[in-house]
Design goal:
Number of strands: 9
Largest sheet: 7 strands, mixed
Order of helices and strands: HHHHHEEHEHEHEEHHEHEE
CATH topology of the largest domain: Rossmann fold
Helix content: 25-40%
Shape: elongated
Strand order of the largest sheet: 5-4-3-6-7-9-8
CATH superfamily of the largest domain: Vaccinia Virus protein VP39
Strand content: 15-25%
Radius of gyration: 21 Å
Number of domains: 2
Structural class: alpha/beta
Distance between the termini: 68 Å
Length: 280
């Protein structure tokens, strides 16, 4: 019994009730409920699903559900998000890493294979997701992550330390590629590309950093700044993998082609052109 005399819910009952509550706030209410209950129990979701769901649900679960019901992203509530082969700590101030962005790593793996690049640059590194995933993929590579937000860099550095990659990852305050003199075998970049008038889901629009989402009236402002910099940063046999939004391939391809770069495309798992692959 709880202090107020009410019967404590079982994990099964708590999950069912939370899924009903979250139906209006999430496209995946049951999954969200499972992730939140696992977090409240300090176990992995798989362990929760294998546990006895007739055991009592922790009181802390209610608070987590209430936060999600208000639109807060799951990753901010539980404090972490899986990406490629690593798990990252995330918090307000950085974008939540998304599976679509793994398309950039897939493109790089297809190009370099097991040998991998020696040097990697991640422009707009945020949580460090792309750079740290690439360093985990290729244990002999060194990398630099650049971001103009000190809070994001603090999160990226903490991720590098926790993953044991800090000795191979440098994180610097900067404005895209300005001031960098080194050339890199692999450049990764997921810039802001949402147009200013876009209608975004509530958990994105109200919680994730707008400076990492929006890029002017047509969503192309940051591509216009990045395009002239890539040739000077890219090694002779290197590639740059640049994330783009839905329908942006023709316009962004034209920007990079105008700088003398060759442009190929790679689709994400949904069949949408997600990554432009640039070579000199």
């Amino acid at each position: 019994m709880r202090p107020n005399g009410s019967r404590a819910l079982t994990r099964r009952e708590a999950l069912a009730g939370a899924a009903r509550r979250l139906a209006g706030a999430s496209e995946t209410p049951r999954l969200d409920a499972e992730l939140l209950l696992a977090s409240a129990l300090a176990i992995e979701r798989q362990a929760l699903l294998l546990s006895d769901l007739n055991e009592e649900a922790p009181a802390a679960f209610e608070q987590l559900v209430a936060r999600r019901e208000k639109g807060e992203p799951i990753a901010y509530i539980v404090g972490r998000r899986g990406f490629w082969t690593i798990e990252l700590e995330v918090a307000p101030g950085v974008l939540v890493p998304r599976p679509d962005s793994e398309t950039l790593i897939e493109a790089a793996v297809a190009h370099f294979g097991a040998n991998g690049p020696r040097s990697i640059l991640d422009l707009g590194t945020g949580s460090g997701a792309l750079l740290l995933a690439a360093l985990d993929q290729w244990p002999t590579a060194q990398g630099v992550g650049v971001d103009r937000c000190e809070r994001a860099l603090a999160i990226a550095r903490a991720n590098g330390e926790r993953l044991g990659l800090a000795d191979r990852a440098q994180f610097r305050l900067g404005d895209w590629g300005e001031g960098l003199e080194q050339r890199f075998d692999l450049i990764l970049c997921n810039p802001p590309y949402v147009d200013a008038g876009a209608d975004l889901p509530r958990d994105v629009a109200e919680w994730e950093p707008h400076e990492a989402l929006f890029a002017g009236a047509d969503g192309l402002d940051d591509y216009r700044r990045i395009a002239p910099q890539i040739s000077g940063l890219l090694g002779q046999d290197g590639i740059a993998c640049i994330e783009i939004g839905l329908g942006q391939a023709p316009a962004v391809t034209a920007l990079f082609a105008a700088e003398g770069l060759r442009v190929d495309q790679r689709e994400d798992l949904g069949g949408r052109t997600r990554c432009l692959i640039l070579t000199r």
